[in-house]
N-acyl homoserine lactonase AttM (Trametes pubescens), 295 residues
Amino acid sequence: MSNIPAHAPCQSYCDVSALEAGHVRVPLDYIVDTAKAGETRELPSLSFLLRHSQNGDIFVFDLGIPKDLQTLSPAYHERIAQMGFALNIPEDAADSLAKGGLDPTDVKHLCYSHIHFDHIGDSRPYTNATFLVGAAAQPLATHGWPADSNSLFSQNLLPEGRTRFLDPTDWPPLGPFPHALDFYGDGSLYIIDAPGHMPGHINVLARTSSDGGWIYLAGDSGHDRRLLTGEAHIPVHQVYGCAHRDKEVAAAHLARIRALMETYPRVRVLLAHDVPWYEVNKDGPGFWPGVIDSL
């Protein structure tokens, strides 16, 4: 296993803030094998704001759930109903940015962990952003709805000329991860190939201090923190199937994240639907305009 690079003199890093971006109530036995049949849980759909300490770049990771659900395809509405998902979006990522005086037009990079409905938000106001998406997701959107009436994914999601499709094939290893991109070229933020959940799924590993603190934004690598601790495992639901496209590959990636946590105690790992962290920190200083404490 390669090492995470040590900090350099005058090391750049990112201030990271959580953004409220909606909630979804899901069948719990769809995401962990320890749940009882019929048990549900409301999950936050977190978005994250990252601000580079030196170049001033404003980078957003995921947008949560769109307030305007009509931006979703008819097939997605059908899917949400079939799964019994209950949505609650009192504020979206744009509303959360406004709490600290930022507008969607201030965002320079908008990175989607993947293009499921509870991560894509409403992309339309982010008119100055370059969109960053795993390359394997490109055909899903390119050949999506409305051209394909059965597609979950919208052709309008990713703006032409402002989308960068990230192919991890030639990215070098970093820590326990086989493929990582040094996004700014200064060791402050890495985009991590995170296979298993769905095509193009990516994570972010960012420095949160100049002296060795990190945060790992794991997206939907797991939908429950107990999958990270080993207290639960990925189920295959008898009706809904598996929450991941490839269960074994997803489990292997979770094991890499666990290795990161065990090897580097100054790495804070957060899931997109991190209920324990959210319950402790909601309305607290980790949400913009505050900053998540660096370990």
Notes: The helical segments are 74-83, 93-98, 117-120, 138-142, 226-229, 247-263, 275-281.
